[in-house]
Amino acid sequence: MTKERLAGMHGIGVDRMGAAADEQTNDLTGVRPVEAAANEIKAGILRLENFDTDLRSPPAAIAETKRAVEDDAANSYLPFIGQDKLRQAVARHVGVQSGLEIDWRRQVVITAGGLNGVLVALLALTQPGDEVVMTDPTYIGMINRVCLAGAVPRLVAFAAESGAWRLDFEALRRSINPKTRTIFIMSPSMPSGAVLNQAEWSAIAELCADACLLLLYNAAMERIVYDGRSGFHPASIPAFAGRTVTIGSVSKEHCMIGWRVGWVVAAPALIDRIALVQISDVVVPVGIAQGAATVALEEGSDAVIRAVAEWQRRRDMVVKELDGLPVIAPAGGWSMLLDTGALGHGGEKASALLLEKARIAATPMVNWGEVNGRQFVRFVFSNEPVGRLRGMGAKVRHALGCA
C-alpha cells in the first residue's frame, strides 16, 4: 500500500498561538491590524511565540532592495539558480566559515529561503523510505519536509547534562541502520538553542564516514552563539569533505526574514541534482531580493556581532527571570525551552495558562520531538526588548502555579 504523502506531518502550532494572541489584542483595543504593534504594548502581551526579531535589517540591504525594484534585470526568470554576484558572495561566506575553497559556479544554488533549500536538498538526495537522523527536539518544519520528501525522520533525543543540551552518542550510533541516508543537523538547534561542540561534530563525522552518509547542515544561525563561543562549521572536519550539504540564508543572522533568500552549497555532483529540483520547484529565487542579500553578506560580520550581543542580553534577561524553573540556557539561537511537564502541566495546557493568566504568548512543542516534545513550551526572546522581558518570571510563576 502506498504511503500517504502527508503521513507524519503536523501543524507547526505557531500560527495558532499567534492568532490567539492577536485575538486577545483585538478584544482589548478593537483595532486590527494597522496598529498591531502599539496594541500589543497596550495589551501587555509578550510575543514570544514566533521566530521573529524586531532588530532592523541592514540599511544597505534595504536601500538595495528599493533600487532593485526599478531594475529590469531583477525582474526576470534568469538566472535560474541565482544571480552570479550572490553566488560568489555565498561561496566566500561559506568558504570563510568552513575553511574550504568553494567554486561558486559548480557548488552554489540560491533558493527561496533556507527552508526551500532544505526541501529541495531532501528531494534531490533521498528516496522514499530512506531514513533521516535528526535531533529531538527539532523544528517541526524541518521534520515535515523530511516527511514531504517521502523519507522517514528518526529522532535522537538531546539530553540535559550540566545545564546544557548534549547529544547522546550511543543513541546516535543506534539510530544508524541500512535505511539511513543522511544526518540532518541544525546548530544552534531550533527550538532548544543547543550548540554542538567539536567532539560531537567529530562523532557525527565518524558515523557519516563509516556508513557512507551525507550530512545536511542547516547553517541558518551558525554565528548566533553566546558566551564567547565561536561558530563551528562541520565541513572543516576532513571526514566531512564532500559529504556536507550546507543550507543557509540571510533570514536570521541578517534579520532579513521577509526577503526569502537562501542557498545550498555542496559538491558538484550533489548540487547538480539539487539545482534540477530547485528549477522544478520555484524556478528562480526572488529577483529583487538577491542584490540585498549580496550586500548583507559583503558587509561582513560586524552587524551580525552587534545583533548577537543584543540577543544575548535578551537571553540573559529571560534566564534571570526564570531562575529556579526547569529551563536550560540556550548556547545560541533565538529561543529556549521551559519544561512545564516538571511543573505539572503539558505544553498545550501551559501555553493556554500563560496567555490567559500572564499575557505571554508561547508555543507548545507538541510534535516537535518524541522525547523532548509535548512537555515543553518555547520562549522566543529575539523579538522583545529587555525592558519588556523584565518581570516575566513572576508572571510565569503565577500562571503555572509555582510562585
Structural descriptors:
403 residues, alpha/beta, Aspartate Aminotransferase, domain 1, Aspartate Aminotransferase, domain 2, 2 domains, 8-stranded mixed beta sheet, 3-stranded antiparallel beta sheet, 13 strands, 41% helix, 15% strand, globular
Q: How would you briefly describe this protein structure?
A:
The protein is of the alpha/beta class.
- As a percent range, the share of strand residues is 15-25%
User: Which CATH class of the largest domain applies here?
Assistant: Alpha Beta
List the strand order in the largest sheet: 2-9-8-7-6-3-4-5
Q: pLDDT average, as an integer?
A: 94
State the distance separating the first and last CA atoms: 53 Å
Shape designation: globular
Oligomer: single chain
Biggest sheet details: 8 strands, mixed
| CATH fold-level label of the largest domain | Aspartate Aminotransferase, domain 2
Number of domains: 2
- Supply the CATH architecture of the largest domain: 3-Layer(aba) Sandwich
The arrangement of helices and strands along the chain is HHEHHHEHEHEEHEHEEEHHHEHEEEHH
Structural class: alpha/beta
* CATH homology superfamily of the largest domain: Type I PLP-dependent aspartate aminotransferase-like (Major domain)
Number of DSSP E strands:
13
Write down the Rg. 21 Å
Residue stretches low in confidence (pLDDT < 50, at least 5 long) are 29-34, 38-42
